Amino acid sequence: MVHVYNCHPFASQQIVQVEQEPGLVCCGGGALFVVATGGCKVEAYNVEQEGCPFICRFATMGTVKSIQHSKMGDYLVTIEEKNSATYLRAYTNWRHQAEGKARVGVRLLGHLLRGASVRGGVQMEIIEIPLSKRPVAVACCPVTGDLLVGCEDTLVLFALRRQNQQSLNQSQQILQSTSQNSSQNQAQSPSPNQNFLDFERSVILHLPKIEPKQVALCGGYVAVQMELEVLVLKLDASSDPKTQEESSDTKKTDHIDDQADFMVLPRHQELLGDVAKDCDIPVSIENTGLEDGKGQYTLSYVLFRRFTPDFFQGCSVEETQLHSLQLYPLYTSNQSVPLEEPACVFCFFSLPNAGYLYSLKGGVELLSTYQYPEKVLKAVLTDHLLHVITKSALQCFTVRCAAVAARIVDPYIDTTMKACPPCSMEVCALRIQLFIGLRSVCVDGSHVILLSVADTETPEEPERTPQRRRLKLKEHTLLTGIFLAVGIDPATTPALESFLSRPFLGRKWTISSPKETSPAGHGWNLYVVDSVSPLTLYQEMVEYSERYAETNPQAQSLRHLLSEAHLFLRASLLRTEPSEQPRNIEGEAAETLQTDTDAPAERQTAAQTDRQEVEEALRHNCAQLGDCFSRGSQKDCHLALPYYRMSGLSVTEVMARNRPLPSSPHTYGPGFLFYLKHFLFEETEQTLSQEAADDVIDIFSQSEPSQLVSVCASPSMINLSPAKTLQILIHQEDTCGVSVLLTITMATMMLCLDDLPQYTQLMERHAEMLLVYRFIEEPRLLLHGGVGGRHTHIRPTRLTRQLAKSQPGLLVAAMVALHENSKVQLEQADHIFKELGCENCLQVDFWEAMLMASSQEAVIQELLFRLVSIYIDRLTNTTSDTHLNEPHTPSRRRPLKSADDLINSCSHYGALYPWLTVLNPAHTTSSQHQEALYKLQSLLCGPSLSVGSVVPLMERLSEETLWGFSLHLLCSTRRGQYDRSIEKLLDRCPQAIIAYANHQLQDTHMILWWQKLLPELCNRTRAASDNSILLAALKETLVVVAMEMSPTDFLELIPDDGTASYFLPYLLTCSQRHLMA
């Protein structure tokens, strides 16, 4: 479907004063080139100035049959005929003819002139390009300036080369004259930076099965058009010596032979991407060896499209042929690839009744199909419009080039941040401009050049006139016979005779015979129609859209029209300034000949101002599109969010634009609600005023009451009126029943009203575990900013501060649940407790609770290290003689979990070793000190703590105190230093040695009883025989040794100077146990 809008894409038109009837017309580089009918002269006119003044005129060497202009290099290429022979020629430096320089150099391809062009500066040159076959079509690459020539069954690619004046002088230094002409040559010599153009045959493509009608070239893409087929190829320079000639030819030939008996008429076919190689057109590459170090070319198929002959409104089957093949590059101002490579490449071709636009880069895709209302003679694609001509009108269609380019340039398109109308959106036709007898159209920038010839046949009609006349005679004879058979003689009835004179089968209109031009004036005109700027066209579209907005704001046509206007603005913003794009190789010479005298700074300022106007218009358009999608259907309502974001409107302004319509006073669009929820729920830093926040509460109470809790929890709603909100929440509870989340929200409102008794009553409605579960569902009741780790800044809510005072256990449980459900990170939770001023109490309780709940090894080790550090801090910062009756400060609040609680409920806390009871002081330290000591000892006795990681922290503790000694002894024992531990324990607290040995010296360490402990005790009792503690320990040790060793081994352990009567009872016990065993 094609939408039609009565917008004016053209601003003005002027007629070019041409003396002779134009035969061929082309344009480019701000110039219009006209070839008179049957003539051998080219006239150039400046389309950039008012009145299109004459630039220059130069003669060609033959009758011009085709002419093209290349922006890169600013040269003309022609196909000419002379003496029944066809030639291909290129005309360079043609602008110098405007300076009255009559000298013209003629040379062959690759043969630079040694004469006047070197000695006397730049002059116009005609480059003869020899070909082995007759050229039928030619195309210039708008990216590189290369030349593609289509012959009967081959395509020849010529690479554009330039020779610098300085290098050219060096190569010809020997041939130049010496002293007597040196001064004259120096005076006439051009700048050493002057360039001379030349071409170099690069590659030849053989297409034996087809005859090209039209060709196109753009940045390595090669397109060839036949009568009903289009083939697009991609040429890439590769160092791989292998080519795909044989494989391609063999496969294609077999494919044709298999289907030769079945194909009567060409079947419709569309092959995109790599599948296009399955077409029945073989292509082989012939490298010329002049690839300039790029290696050999490789070929890949990109697109193949075949159409079947069809009949269409006044166009016979034999007239159904393709035309207007075009490869169009699109540059962008901020593309990441080099500027020599366009961001997008599009392929366009057309039938008389339909046009087709494809995107080639980044995957081949059919963007648009244009259905014409009548037969189209020619079409030209630009970056924001498609211009087509019929016999009597110029019409413009919108294109989707900007939509494709926007998605390549900006990766945030089609997200919640940004949006753009889809590439598949239906196209629209703008206002038709009527003309008489249009023949051709071409475009240069904002200038559309039209050639009209009144009361003459179209170029293809003379060839078919005999055929049509025979068809007309056949029709007349057939119908006359029918009338005679029924007894009616048409010759006797003038009306029947006139009726039979009309053609019926061949065409639907009458073919008028050629008429002589009136002596009073000619029957042709050459128009230059200026297109309006995209901004002007956008403004007219906005005015046009207001008609839809007044009648039906939700109309699909309104949305489509605003989307079209959006793409016009995007095309204007994406388009690179001329100075940024690679235009022509001889840009310096071309610029010096331009008549524009504006200073570069002024042009830059004007361009910046224009861009600011376009950006402002784009923001306004995004706001309008946001309005459309905010009230639209549920299908596309999500697009309101990115368009409103791109508009730069605040949420208050968006709310003002979405007041309920008079027809539905209590209804808000789904798109607006989607935008509002995204704003409220995505942790934005923008805070609403009380008036705006109350409006939001009213909106959701009417539209989505189930979202009220989430809305009230949003950090943007911190300024809402608690009394008004509480009334709405109470009404919601009366309507829908009691819910935990609703109760918490109501309690928060009570807290804002400083009604603590009602707050407490509401919070005691439900069990703490139910409250924890609901905090997981809506974490913003406790935290603002940074939920899920998206922001570094996070802060507690008013409810969180109250829980820290009145229900610290609930707060800790809730924070643990949020962490375990990935609603908050460990660092963020630490920040919350620091904000609350509880970093030395609730934060430690949180870590201990996290250690009980977490199953992540990395988190467990991090928590163990933190807890060891905090326990050591508490041991070093508290004195051992602090009494229990000291009042509690906030930093010394009793912990939620005691050491015994943690030992019983957390596997990471181990039971205290029995020998520690001997070393731990009893009731001589403060409760905080004792709790910290027991918890640290419990961690050291547990299975999870890596002792090696906390040894540097333990260095802060002195061994002078018995509890400090116990911690160091635990570390030594955990690290396997039993010999050293035994010695230290015998030195400091020998009464604990037996308890230590009974617990630690077991299994594989049992040998230490007689290898280490017994010798140590013997030596120490020998030195202090009156030490009862050591003697008791020795007796206990001998009992254990006697039970574990044989009598022989036991005898070897007895000291030589020992008393036999002392060891005899133990030896007897050992012998009896051995006999029993």
TrEMBL record:
<feature type="domain" description="BLOC-2 complex member HPS3 N-terminal">
    <location>
        <begin position="192"/>
        <end position="472"/>
    </location>
</feature>
<dbReference type="Pfam" id="PF14761">
    <property type="entry name" value="HPS3_N"/>
</dbReference>
<dbReference type="Pfam" id="PF14763">
    <property type="entry name" value="HPS3_C"/>
</dbReference>
<dbReference type="InterPro" id="IPR017216">
    <property type="entry name" value="HPS3"/>
</dbReference>
<dbReference type="InterPro" id="IPR029437">
    <property type="entry name" value="HPS3_N"/>
</dbReference>
<feature type="domain" description="BLOC-2 complex member HPS3 C-terminal">
    <location>
        <begin position="536"/>
        <end position="1074"/>
    </location>
</feature>
<dbReference type="InterPro" id="IPR029438">
    <property type="entry name" value="HPS3_C"/>
</dbReference>
<protein>
    <recommendedName>
        <fullName>Hermansky-Pudlak syndrome 3 protein</fullName>
    </recommendedName>
</protein>
<feature type="region of interest" description="Disordered">
    <location>
        <begin position="589"/>
        <end position="608"/>
    </location>
</feature>
<feature type="region of interest" description="Disordered">
    <location>
        <begin position="171"/>
        <end position="193"/>
    </location>
</feature>
<feature type="domain" description="BLOC-2 complex member HPS3 N-terminal">
    <location>
        <begin position="3"/>
        <end position="166"/>
    </location>
</feature>
